[in-house]
Write a structure and sequence with these properties.
Blueprint (H helix, E strand, L loop, with lengths): L3 E10 L5 H12 L2 E6 L5 E7 L1 H11 L7 E10 L7 E3 L1
Parallel strand pairs: 2-5
Antiparallel strand pairs: 1-3, 1-4, 2-3
Helix pairs in contact: 1-2
Amino acid sequence: MQESCERFTVSGLVQGVGFRYSTSYEGQRLGVTGYAKNLYNGDVEVVVCGLPEQIEAMALWLKHGPKTSRVESVVRELIPFKPFKGFKIL
């Protein structure tokens, strides 16, 4: 199987609650690469690269996030593959 990348935009109570740190931990646990970044509008952008089943596992996790967050919506889109090193917090 070939690796791919997807961008997720997560909305809700997702800033100031450790969402990016928990996402980074989950990404490392799943073996994916990419990043989690706060956006100015209060959302979090998460780019995930890996095998389809790894990306799907991360997508399921992002629907709930850590216990400290309250996810209201997750929008996902396929983006061109880019090799990242590890899973970063931006």
